[in-house]
Amino acid sequence: MPRFAANLSLLFCELPYLDRFAAAARAGFEAVEILFPYDIAARDTRRALIANGLQLVLINAPPPNYTGGMPGFAALPGGEDRFRHDIRRVLRYADELRAGLIHVMAGPAQGAAAQETLVANLQWAADHAPGQRFTIEPLNDTDQPGYFLNDYALAAEVLAAVDRPNVGLQYDAYHAQMIHGDAAGIWDRYGAGAFHVQIGAAPDRSEPGRGPGHGPVDFAALFAAIDASGYAGWVSAEYTPSTRRTEDSLGWLT
Ligand SMILES: O=C(O)C(=O)[C@H](O)CO
Ligand SMILES: [Mg+2]
C-alpha cells in the first residue's frame, strides 16, 4: 500500500486548525499537507507538526488567493513581478515548515502567451530555489472554470518545456477522473516520475470508495498501480468527508 498523508485543509475541518494535527496523528497519519497556511504564523504550524510527529509534505503557492480569490496567477502574462515576490514569500514558509513540495497554481488564463508565461515562471522558481521541489496540477473546469492547466497532456507539455529536475507533476485522482473520465488510465500514461499524488472520489470528492455515492474509480486497483509504478512519495487524502467526523470516513485506509 502507498504511504498516505492527510490534507488538513479538507480533512478534520470539524476541528479548529491547530487541533487537526493531533487528530491526524491519532488517526495514524505521519504526514500532512496544508493548501494555504499563510494566515497562521509559521512557528505555530511548525510547533503543531513537531508536537504530533508529523512531516509536512506540501503547501500551495502563490498565496493567499484561493478561497474566494484567484486560484494562482503563474500563467498570467504581466504577473511576473508579483509571482517572484510571492514565491520568495512562500519559500520562507516552506523553509520554516520544512515543506518538501510547493504546488504552483497557474490561475485563469488561455493561449500561447499564458503557456509561455507559466513555463518561464516555473523555470525562474526552479532556478531561484534549486533545493526546493515544485509541482503543477491540472484542475477540472467544473471546480475551476477557466483555469489554465486543465488537462494532463497540457501539464506534460509544460513540464517538458520547463525541463527542470525540481519541477514535476502533481497527480490528483479526483481531477484526473473529472477531466478525462479515467483516473487509472491517466496514472498509467502520465504517472511516471510524478512528484506527488492526491486522491478523492469523483464526482463528489468524498473519501475513496466505489459505487453509489462515491463514483467509478477502483481505488484498490489504483493503489496497486501506484505501488507497481515504483512511486515512493506520499499519497495525500484530499477529499471532503461524507461523514460528520473525519475519522469515520477513513475505512478506505485499511
Ligand atoms: O484542488 C486541488 O485538487 C488542489 O490540490 C489544489 O491545490 C487546491 O488548492
Ligand atoms: Mg489536488
TrEMBL record:
Gene3D superfamilies (UniProt xref): Divalent-metal-dependent TIM barrel enzymes
Keyword annotations: Isomerase
SUPFAM superfamilies named among the record's database cross-references: Xylose isomerase-like (SSF51658)
Xylose isomerase-like TIM barrel domain span: 21-253
Coiled-coil regions listed in the entry: none
Any single biological process term in GO: glyoxylate metabolic process
MF terms (GO), sorted A to Z: hydroxypyruvate isomerase activity
One Pfam family matching this protein: AP_endonuc_2
KW Isomerase (keyword) present: yes
Record's protein name: TIM barrel protein
Organism expressing this protein natively: Pukyongiella litopenaei
